[in-house]
Amino acid sequence: MPTAVKTCRVCGKSYAACRTMSKAAGVFRWQEVACSPECGAEYLRQVTEARNPAPPVSKAGKARRRAAPAMETAKPADESVAEPENQAPAEAFAETPVENE
């Protein structure tokens, strides 16, 4: 049978491809595109993946984990907060009645 020199579409190596007349519709023939069955399988995988991309994973079905909110650490009881000298304590404001005009 006559042969043609082709270049492998996976590895780029030249190979002698046999031209056959038996071409069945829908049947993949690795000899037409690749130098070996392994390269042919890789080529078929790449083509299939390109034609049928994997569907994106939806985030709606997954439970989201939220980080716990950062909480301030409690100050020790013996540590007091100093108030400025020219300002009245906050407790004094709470006890002062508010007059409505």
What is the alpha-carbon Rg in Å?
Answer: 39 Å
Q: How confident overall, as mean pLDDT?
A: 74
Largest sheet: 2 strands, antiparallel
Q: Which residues sit in consecutive blocks of at least 5 with pLDDT less than 50? A: none
| Total DSSP helices | 2
**Strand arrangement, major sheet:** 1-2
List the helices and strands and how they pair.
Elements: E1 3-7, E2 14-18, H1 37-51, H2 90-95
Antiparallel strand pairs: 1-2
Description:
The structure is a single chain. The chain has 101 residues and is an alpha+beta fold. It has a domain at 3-18 and 29-51. It has two helices and two strands. It has a two-stranded antiparallel ribbon. Strand 1 and strand 2 form a beta hairpin. The longest helix is centred in the middle third of the chain and has 15 residues, at 37-51. The radius of gyration is 39 Å and the shape is rod-shaped. The mean pLDDT is 74.
